[in-house]
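Appendix B. Extra example for self-study. Work through it before the problem class; the solution is given directly after the inputs so you can check yourself.
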Amino acid sequence: MTDSQPLKVTLLGATGSIGASTLDVMARHPDRYQIYALTANTNVDVMAQLCETWLPDYAVMNDVSSADKLSSHFTDKAIRTQVLVGEEGLQQVVENENVDCVVAAIVGAAGLPPTLAAAKAGKRVLLANKEALVMSGKLFIDTARENDAVLLPVDSEHNAIFQCLPDSLTRHHSSVKITNQNDAAGIERIWLTASGGPFRTYSAEQLQDVTPEQAVNHPNWDMGKKISVDSATLMNKGLELIEAYWLFDMDIENIDVVVHPQSVIHSMVTYADGSVLAQLGNPDMRTPIAHALAWPERIDSGVEPLNIFDVAKLDFEHPDLDRFPCLRLCYEAIRMGGTAMIVLNAANEVAVSAFLEERIGFTDIAVLIEKTLDQAEITIDVSSLELILDADKLARIITNKCIAEMH
Ligand code: NAD
Ligand code: MG
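Solution. Structure tokens for the complete assembly:
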């Protein structure tokens, strides 16, 4: 970053949980960061407030009706924010030459096209939208490398791993290639920590009856609904396993999941000499966001430093793949390769929506994903956005059909 010019940021998913945490960190450093564009799905009221505060050049809403409503908010005020619509609007505010940094914080597959466009445009990309990387994998990493994008993980586990890696690897930050340089760096294992979610101690029988309200009530983290349900099924950890697999180019055998209910250690790296490096902190997404915004510098995030005496005790357990089959399915999808991870992600999105709408039960989520993986044709070629979006679409049709058959 230059001394005088603030970094111009496009924040995709501004009205969400990561969006709010990002704006909270940015507000502490008005000299360093400036909002260029804010985007949201359909939440016009929150978006109108954000635009009044941040005065972005552009605001993007997902549909014409939301965009019109937002524009009408501005007519009697001296706000010059231009309102754009949909995928084209997103692409425009990501690719624009005035933009330095894109924060990818849309939830789900909807975030893939603009996040990939940010990598293609060679931006500094702060990646929270894990589904985008799960779906596009090698295409995304190759695109970031070829276009010199600076890819920085915001997901707390991947950000922790990034922080525990040696400078020699993270200096070339368009993605960290561990396997090729493994010998010199001496990296042996990556440990992804998992809180275990709200149902960590529930029996298989108890899991049958859990409600959406219970599932979105995470013990340690305050997050959007979809990722909260994913945390409850351990699908979130499975998606993060896939995310780590692509991001760090690591063999899956060398990535482990460890349940750590306190969520104080955000992940760890084991080295050849027996050292295990961990990143610790209070569970607050403003820490990884501030790290990624300022990297390689450090800035205030507003998060209280960890009081180790308050923590006192750290517990570790193996994950239970029988009670939480979504994690097992993620391991299987990685081994299947090709479109399997796209199919798994799509089936999960459809199933989680159905669960939140009380159309299916909690344990049906894994059943539906497994059925979809069985029924979808898994193909090897995932080399273009079109192929990826086709596989996503077909999987959603299968999962919806399976849901209809359940009733
Ligand atoms: P959220 O539901 O709180 O917010 C999602 C945002 O995406 C909102 O601004 C919404 O308007 C926008 N959006 C949703 N659907 C859209 C669509 N079809 N088109 C355009 N915009 C759309 O979600 P969140 O918890 O902030 O999570 C965002 C992403 O970050 C997810 O991929 C999640 O897995 C990841 N993540 C979140 C956390 C967390 O603590 N919340 C931690 C790590 C990773
Ligand atoms: Mg995470």
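Self-check: The mean pLDDT is 95. If your reasoning did not lead you there, revisit section 3.
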